[in-house]
Amino acid sequence: MTAATSRLSALLPDLSPWRSSADFRRLWIQGLVATFGSFMALVALPLQIKHLTDSPLAVGVMGAVELVPLVVFGLYGGALADAVDRRRVILLTEAGLGLLALVLLVNALLPDPLLWPLYVVAAGVSALAGLQRPALDSLFARIVPHDQLTAAAALNALRWQLGAIVGPSLAGVVVAFAGHATAYGTTVACFVVSVLLCLRLSPAPPAHDAEKPSLRGIAEGARYAWSRPVLLGTYAVDLAAMFFAFPNAIFPFLADELDAEWSLGLMYAAGSIGSLALSLTSGWTSRVRRHGLLVVFGAGAWGAAIAAAGWFSNVWLVLVCLAVAGAGDMLSGLGRSTIWNQTIPEELRGRLAGIEVLSYSCGPQLGQVRAGAMAGWTGTRAAFWGGGLACLASVGLLAAVLPRLLSYDADTDEDARARRAQRETALTA
Asked: Where in the chain are the domains?
């Protein structure tokens, strides 16, 4: 019994970051509330566009509308995170997201809801997310001990998955029975709570010699990323996987083809269920040192599962494939997050997080456009399996041309060792 209990404990999530950092606990709870509210709107918004237009392309265009603000404000947000108090950036952008949710609510309450505000709000959300994400991502490496970064990434993913499962699952029911306005109203309420929680975070001021946000500063971060093949590999693999195999925009049309409109919320939640399953058994990842392997194998599993989802006609098998895809994405994400936090210097974390926003978010936005356009030209099912196979091919090619990503070892990598020493020096100062 003791041996079995020990093996089970080794699989369960490592709670060290939760115990060692009060700010980590606050951010975890705030993020859970905000994620739940965001996913309510994430499901309601494309559904509302579908109801107003009945066009896959119109839904996919939402990704194109979000792309430019994400690129511009993501890069600027990275420079901003290195120059100002990161807590303030998080607080103000969270309040702005709540106001945009209020716009969606007001529009949904109109006798004849308008289409153009949906695209305007989508662009605004993308801009604020681009500003916020670098400050948020770069904050964790400051408040969590170096040797707990993989555990922190797993717990953050667990938080996101809980919101991503419950939010979409309830959103499908709420929209079907209570309308879009109720879903948007829930989002507004969640952001009010989130802002109140952000007020309790400790200040996170920049270094005393931090420069003001500038193009030169952004270029400095880009040069650093370009000089590190391991970082380039994590960005490239994620971008390729999301561009070729992110079909969320066409879930409503797949549900229609499978004659299972009731399954739409489950489709949005299935990936998170798979991610959650991996997170709940993620204790072993704290002992992994070859994080590049996690990045590549996880992205490959994501592509293979999305391709399989396009072949099956049984909705339950499709949901299983989407869950497997989510587990693969989670595995890849743990590897990426750990490599970023272990190797990037503190003074560049914000700017590199801004670049990470582009690889993390631009891929899904472009992927929505690809999925919507391909579904319109070749059909919904082909958009799934074609994209999944393209993902597998591109990830394999990138692994072949970037061998240092596969050979990355946290114990021997020079950048990782330097950051560990930097953090130990800061803690003893």
From this structure: 17-205+212-428
Q: How is the chain split among helix, strand and coil, in percent rounded to 5?
A: 85, 0, 15
Kindly indicate the confidence band of residue 375, based on its pLDDT and cuts at 50, 70 and 90. Answer: confident
Residue 81 burial by Cβ neighbours in a 10 Å radius (0-12, 13-18, 19+): buried
Taking each helix axis as running N to C, give the angle between helix 116-143 and helix 349-357, from 0 to 180 degrees, rounded to the nearest 10: 140
Alpha carbon 330 to its chain centroid, in Å, reads 10
Whether pLDDT at 367 is above 50: yes
- How large is the average pLDDT for residues 103-110? 95
Helices (H), 213-314: 215-226, 229-244, 251-257, 264-279, 291-311
Buried b (16+ CB within 10 A) or exposed e, 311-336: ebeebeebbbbbbbbbbbbbbbbbbb
Model pTM score: 0.70
Q: Does the structure show a pLDDT above 50 at 1? A: no
Which parts of 312-379 fold into alpha helices (H)? 315-343, 349-357, 363-378
Based on the number of CB atoms within 10 Å of its own CB, is 100 exposed (0-12), middle (13-18) or buried (19 or more)? buried
Q: What is the mean pLDDT of residues 74-97?
A: 90
Domain 17-205+212-428 = CATH 1.10.10.10: no
Residue 235's nearest CA partner among 333, 317, 96, 378 is 333
Indicate if the alpha-carbon torsion angle 73, 158, 236, 224 is positive or negative.
positive
pLDDT digits (tens, 9 = 90+) for 303-343: 999 999 988 989 999 999 999 999 999 899 888 888 887 88
State pLDDT tens for residues 250-272.
Answer: 888 888 888 887 888 788 888 88
